[in-house]
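Supplementary Methods S3. Input chains for the assembly prediction are listed below.
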Amino acid sequence: MPPVITVQHLTKRYGSFVAVDDISFAVQQGEIFGIVGPNGAGKTSAVETIMGLRWPFEGTVRVLEMDPHQQRKELAERIGIQLQEAELPHRLKVWELMELFSGFYRKSIPYPPLLETWGIWEKRNSRFEELSGGQKQRVFIALSLLNDPEVVFLDELTTGLDPQARKQTWAMVEQIRAQGKTVVLVTHFMEEAQTLCDRVAIIDGGKIIALDTPQGLLNSIDGQSGLMIENSPEMDMALLQALPTVERVELSNGVVSIYGNADNLVSSVVLALEQHRIPMRNLRTVQPSLDDVFITLTGKALRD
Amino acid sequence: MKTYRKLVVAHAKLFLREPIALFFTIAFPALLLTLLGIVFGHGNVPYPGEDFGYIDQQVPALAGIIVGTIALHSIPVITANNRERGILRRLKASPMPAWQWIAAEISVNFVVAVLSLVLLIIIATYAFGMRFAGSWGAVLIGFTLSAFSFMALGYLVASLAPTPRVATAAGQILYMPMFMLSGAAIPLMLMPDGVQSVARWLPMTHVVIVLQSLWLGGEWAMRSIWVLVAMLAVGGVLSARLFRWE
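Predicted structure tokens for the full assembly:
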């Protein structure tokens, strides 16, 4: 089966500014493919070019074997789009928006089940302006699925949502994929990409600086795997440092951090502490995150 | 057609839920006519040497206010708002041909303009004894030309204005002199010659001239017709080229 999306040497310029700089990747059917990076990295420019909303561009892009510029309307019939920072006419009600957008597609699925699936059926008679941020996002997701698309593009889906609404939205994205659709997820939340995506392209300065599964990306860096324990009078730093699995031990703010990459790091540390009757208060493990991957690759921190 | 029909329904609902637009496009011209009719109507007695009175010339003149309000208040402000909020961007991302959104908006605005004019005619006929010496078919043609010509100007303002604030201000700057000087609110013949010669440069003056000629004697004021045709052509072409969806 050919990839759902193929991007070869895509470059997008605005005047002399190069927003997307020679990126290439392919997305397979049924994947949740993440495009992550800080604000201004070129994620939205890339994905909006791929959706057919921006041209001209250099390079080759195929989505469902179509050219997104030449066959924009045809492609728009078969993809679902949730744009970053878009709005809808404030004084139309949810059901009226669904009715209106249903008229934009050659074929569309009935909207009442969609509204029920996304938990906004009760809000069908509310005007768009009366909805909360999370409810608006649900409307946008429902709209993006109205034409039963094969690929769904979600750009900064959870920006501006509180943590609980964000977690709920993540479950919805999983649900979209469970329906057999391919999802392209653009986000600047590394945690979101790590939780949801099968593969992640990290973009910075318009270039793809890494592309792999989240686990593959984590393995690629000299990770900060380890565990943390509250300090106590009985603590024996030398003992821990002497363990063959431990690479480094640090003490700061009353917390002992023990780092190492061996698979049995946690068990060996716990065993040693147990044997010497050293208390293990507030023990927790530390996993490297995609944030660490980004910092390692670029030498700079992601801003939220 | 299905798409266009749904767009018209959506625009109609949006219009009805916008109290300010509703007031200024429908209620304001009617209130103005009622007020002017009471103060200056004098029972609509004919002017010396003419066979028409104040009311007879004022109703077609107020048609200028109707098309001006829609073109220079509603269209630029609503369009600039829809653009700034990303509503136009979201619409353009769908397979719907984007011009259909504008076409439906124009259709609804045109119907609103006609209804507003019909309301004026009803008030003028039953409250002030309006006379009518022209043909309604010709008036409809003249009014349609006026409305489309002004809407083309409105979309040009909407295309050029970078923000809703600028759109609002630009609309006002164009509208206010026309409201005062075009003869739409105050009869042109009552104004000094200097003002009258300035008024010739205002598009609304030509709406007033065209409709008053059709109304009072069924004549086509061709010079003013050509001015409106030219504004329609230039405004239409320029806004089609310059219109921005984001």
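The longest strand of chain A covers residues 17-27. The interface with chain B takes residues 51, 53, 73-74, 76-77, 81, 83, 85-89, 91-92, 96, 99-106 of chain A (CB under 8 Å).
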